[in-house]
Amino acid sequence: MTELWVKNACVIDPIRGINGEIMDIAIRDGRIVESVSDRADVIDAQRCLTLPGGIDSHTHVSGTKVNFGRYMSPEDMRAGRTKRKGKMHVTSGYYVPTTFGNSYRYSAMGYTTLLEGAMAPLEARHTHEEFTATPHQDMMANTLFDGNWAVMDAVREKDVRKTAAVVAWTLKAARGYGIKLTNPGGTEAWGWGEDLTGIHDMVPHFAVTPAEIITTMIRANELLKLPHSVHLHCNNLGKPGNYQTTLETFELVPDLNAARQTLYATHVQFHAYGGGTWKNICSKAEEITRSVNSKPQIVMDMGQIMFGRTMTMTADGPMEFNLHCLHNNKWSNHDVELETGSGIIPVTYSKKSAVNCIMWAIGLELALLTKNPYQCLLETDNPNGAPFVKYPEVIGLLMSKRYRDEECATLAAGVEQRTSLCALEREMDWHDIAVMTRAGQAKALGIGSQGKGHLGVGAEADIAIYPIRTDSVDPAREYRKVVEGFQKTRYTIKRGRVVSRDGEIIVDGANATFWVDAKVPEDLKMENDPEFIKRFEQFYTVRMSNYPVQDVYLPRGRRIETEVFT
Amino acid sequence: MRVILESKVRAKPNLPIEAEAIIPRNFLKGTDLVVYEGNKERTLSELFWIFVEGTAVAPENIEVILKGDTSRIKRVGEYMDTGSIVIEGDIGMHCGNFMSGGTIEIRGNADSWLGREMRGGTILCRGNAGHYCATGYRGEKKGMQGGKVEVSGNTGDFCAEYLAGGTVHIHGSAGDFPGVEMRGGELIIEGDATRPCGNMKSGTCVILGTVHDMLPTFEKIERRVLPAWKITADVYRGDVANRGKGTLCVRC
Amino acid sequence: MIEHDVVCPFCGCLCDDLEIETEGGRIVKVQNGCALAESTFMNDVRLPAPIRRTETGWEDISYQEAIKETAEILQGADRPLLYGWSSTHGEAQSVGVHIAELIGAVIDNTSTVCHGPSILAIQEVGHPGCTLGQVKNRADVIIYWGCNPVEAHPRHMSRYTTYATGFFVPDAQRERTVIVVDTRRTDTAGIADEFVQIEHGGDYAVLSALRAIVRGKASVIPAKVAGVSKEQLIRIAEICKTAKFGAIFFGLGLTMSRGKYKNIRNAIELTDELNRYTKFVISPLRGHGNVYGSNEVFTWMTGYPFAVDFARGIAFYNPGETTAVDILRRGECDAALIVASDPGANFPRAAAAHLAKIPTIVIDPHVNATTALSRIHIPCTAAGIDAAGTAYRMDGVPIRLKKVIDRGYPDDAEILKKIYDHLNGGKGP
Q: Are residues C88 and C131 in the same domain?
């Protein structure tokens, strides 16, 4: 039995309605309990800001695409090198760090749970291998279905139950967590070097539209009672004028779940552009947030960009190629048979570029214009908008109008005319930030019941104690203190153990991987469907028996079983 | 001030030494510097006999002289910004990496990556230079960006790869692919070269000797007299395999 | 007993449809595999126990002794080299990287002598690729450049390309155009619809010319480029531009001929250019079964796919400097651990000769040419035969190798962990 007693913590725990109370937290064997014995180890939080461990609900840290980003970037690897030290392995890289680099830096920032944003089921084993080498965060993997042939066939047949059955089989085979759609239908079209231009375009050869894929998958998701909703990267990412597509997509979404959203729209900054060319691009954040403010069934995340060099990586292959044709830097592409695509290119977001400045402003606008912080979560689509180590700066910008104004003064012309950022007075408070970085994520991902995102009795003891005294720092003025404070916790506690102290990792990791075993009625099981098996064996290049991820890849796998539907 | 470093005899003479600490500025505060031999950390005095003559108040007045077997010593002059280094014999890889000012003179031969990612200053190599003379790092889009590298002898392959600025002057011959991926700056080869300027985007290359295996994707523009070299040259534009607008001048 | 859907660990194709029949702990029959697969499973003669060189020959030693001596040799070295890794599973590769970072070693894999140049090219311009099923289901134009899959990857054409029935290519043989580019008329050239014979070392020039033609600059190109007529080049460019889905596969004929990584870069940039007209992909034909896995494991752990130098504590990478062949040729390293590969057979002579001068330890199931240069040889399981583990196919698809039989050998990952423990004062990685 191990016990820990955190005293004098200034706790903000939005899910439990606690906002800045000084209290003590008792921990036994990894979970929060009512009380501990007097033999417990004691941490005096000294009235510092104490939050549930941070949760990133959309990041790219593990798997084929991320590793290819590393593989092709020796120039980035020399940017963040550290030596082996104590319990810490060697790390390399700044915007695509090694797995240990990711894990240590997230931990130093108080993050204890991550959702990998995109995993192709055929390559799931790779993602899980990297999860075990990302030892200090509990992991989950969004599983890609955007170009899944079996799904598109079922969608064409308007068969929600069959769609659900394919999803259930694939999630289990991939040990995945939820449904991810990246440019639905577009990644299949990219198999021929084409893309779709809207949600009512037909996918070549499959006679379905993105709108049909999205709506059918939403129904299948709810039929399966998956903890997370459909997680959507909308069509037309990064194209001027794409906000129309985004709004049309939002209009498709019914409100089907009382406990959480019905659609999670990711990195919406990249989907909120007006205008028709790069020359007249402008912000449509007001239109987007007006829609979201009236639709509790939608949660989005920011997709904030920050200035500097980074790497874009997404399953959206055609988008990456278009971007490549603009930048003419290196370009990688990796289409995955019968499933999805992916692309990778390095980019530099520059303050000299009006387009980049507008993108930067749009992300902030989205957050500031969304009334309920549970509906707009904080992330950068790491590393697409910026490496996650920039989160503290994003927090600073959201909390301080002065910081935003100072930044705006250094930008290329256009931000003031083509976005509304400069007119926004809102300054977020500590509670808003706690929602946007943990409580909101826990709710959106449906992991509150797994003991994530709050500090109630029975919760997993994932806790971040920041060197910030909320009673003496004015974030509007002293935003630098806020940024610094969120960069390095005093303590990051993971499942009851102090893993990071003042930025230094002090134990070996022991993370868990959450995955969903969605139950379907016996007659719908794909493993018994002769047509599914036949098609699999004919058109995949691995045998169906070799496809599912073996349990050995999840040494600490946590299976979430759903109730069978009828 | 003059600092003379004479290499000591080593038990394992083939072990590489990494000595980025050897730049003039560092000797302002003394000679208590750290270098690396294989995977071990050493003090400068473990590997060198150190003689200091005179004093200096500013780094630009410091001259560092390396004597003895210095052919395995890497990264001498890395990030050097002022002063001078004279190497009496051969020098190891990465001499003058990221150099931004001052001068390095190598009386012998230089190993590969001489002046990698150089920004400014001057490197003079009296002997031959190895592969990747005056280039960049793997995956990086820009190689040497400024300053001057002059080699009296020959260079190995890929000389001035990714050259983006500054001048590279080879008095002898270059190996395969000099000026490959060039995007700026000036490359002069007085001797011969094989397959020069493959995939170049911009910049100028002048070759006074014979070109072997000229690439098929250079467009001949004109024949012109180059007064600076007192020659008549064929002037090519390329590489048209990409959208290149570089200039390649070959003596005719 | 017959085991189905067994993965062949021999080459980068990782065919996973073999049937292996075992009888009393022995493999008696291999079905569905090519000749190379059959030989991998059937001619699996092992070194019985660890051996150590004596003044006159070899002596048997215990695993414990062999492990302890290996650790001591590595511990005492100023520039240890850990090389190989491509014929074992990811689990062993991962322990190898941990050993390297612990003792400040250089760790390198066999990419150094095969597709290292491809990696360097990818680091310059990226890699437009895909999984092999995309090619199988869609490609109507296949190009084999500088490779001979008929001999080196015998089932590549029947499983993934020329002869494979694809969803959008139901009549593969009729619907696919096959182009073979090589310096000599290989067996693969025999089945090509179009064979392009290039003069030795002329690949770069031909690729440049093709790029220019695709870009509409044919007027610049001379009548013949490296022995290939301009007419043929224009014809090839046209076939590529009008393809629905084209795929280029290349081998050592391109990576290891004059110009090396610049050849690959040029081929990738041709692919890139073609994507402005249609869909095109390019992929290296990887040799050793899990060499791509070693690149993957090295990359997520260190940031670099091969040639990683930990001498300064941090990971440093610079092929040409930190690559095994170069380190050996310069006589730098003073101890070597060779795992799951045979540099004695594959390295240039000067590099291999240095291995004989220093204490070299081999961990490998089989006696090979490196054994003759080594001081200690520790036998272990062979991944995919008597050990399970992860391997990455040439297109990045991870596949679990199976354990088909038990021959009583310790897994190389276990041996390496024990070496690590010794080096780390009894504490595991």
A: no
Supply the range of the domain harboring residue B116. Answer: 109-251
In a domain, B21, yes or no: no
Give the one of C204, C312, C330 whose C-beta lies nearest to B195's C-beta: C204
Per-residue pLDDT of B133-180, as tens digits, reads 999 999 999 999 999 999 999 999 999 999 999 999 999 999 999 999
| Nearest partner of C138 among A194, A9, A551, judged by Cα | A194
Task: Establish if C21 belongs to a structural domain.
Answer: no
Question: Is residue A414 very low, low, confident or very high in pLDDT (cuts 50, 70, 90)?
Answer: confident
- Contact status of B79 with chain A (Cβ, < 8 Å): no
Query: Residues for chain B: how many in total?
Result: 252
What is the interface pTM, i.e. ipTM, of the complex?
A: 0.97
Q: Which residue has the tokens 């509990």?
A: A138
Same domain, yes or no: C123 and C268: yes
Same domain for C213 and C189 = yes
Both C318 and C243 in one domain: the answer is: no
Report which DSSP code applies to A372: S
CA of A69: which chain B residue's CA is closest?
B139
Give the total residue count for chain A: 566
Using only the alpha carbons of chain A, give its radius of gyration. Answer: 22
Per the CB < 8 A criterion, the answer to whether A3 and A39 are in contact is yes
Chains in contact with chain B (at least 3 beta-carbon pairs closer than 8 A): A, C
Q: What is the DSSP letter of A84?
A: -
Do C149 and C78 fall within a single domain? no
Residue C235, SS3?
helix
Alpha carbon of C399: minimum distance to chain B alpha carbons (Å): 29
Q: How many CB pairs under 8 A join A and C?
A: 177
**C349 dihedral zone (left: phi>0; alpha: psi -120 to 50; beta):** alpha
What is the full DSSP assignment across A203-218?
A: PTTT---HHHHHHHHH
Residues C141 and C278 both lie in one domain: yes
Chain A contact partners (≥3 CB pairs within 8 A)? B, C
Give the model's confidence band at C429: pLDDT under 50 very low, under 70 low, under 90 confident, else very high.
low
- The reply to whether C254 and C300 lie within a common domain is no
Count of domains for chain B: 1
Structure tokens at A16: 């439990």
- Cβ contact (<8 Å) for B38 and C311? yes
Contact assessment for residue C311 and residue A357, using Cβ atoms and an 8 Å cutoff: no
Strand C360-363 and strand C335-339: pairing?
A: parallel
A342 touches A120 (CB < 8 A): yes
Shared domain check, C233 and C358: no
Could you confirm whether domain A51-505 is CATH 1.20.120.1810? no
Helix/strand/coil for A67: helix
For residues C80 and C101, is the Cβ–Cβ distance under 8 A?
no
> If you write DSSP's letter for every residue of B184-226 in order, what string do you get?
EEEEEESS-EESTTTT--EEEEEE-SPEES--TT-EEEEEEEE
Q: Grade residue A330 by pLDDT with cuts at 50, 70 and 90.
A: very high
Cα atoms in the Cβ-side hemisphere of radius 13 Å centred on A27:
24
For chain C, what percent of residues have pLDDT higher than 90? 98
DSSP state, residue A37: -
What local confidence, expressed as pLDDT, does residue B3 receive? 98
pLDDT digit string (tens) for A366-387? 999 999 999 999 999 999 999 9
Nearest to A175, CA basis, from A556, A518, A547, A549: A549
Q: What is the pLDDT of residues C21-50, one digit of tens each?
A: 999 889 999 999 999 999 999 999 999 999
Residue B51 lies in a domain: no
In eight-state DSSP terms, residue C33 is -
Among A68, A123, A545, whose Cβ lies nearest the Cβ of C398?
Answer: A123
Domain boundary among C224, C249, C284: C284
Question: Does the model's pTM come out above 0.90?
Answer: yes
Residues A524, A533: Cα–Cα separation, whole Å: 13
pLDDT of the residue at C25: 87
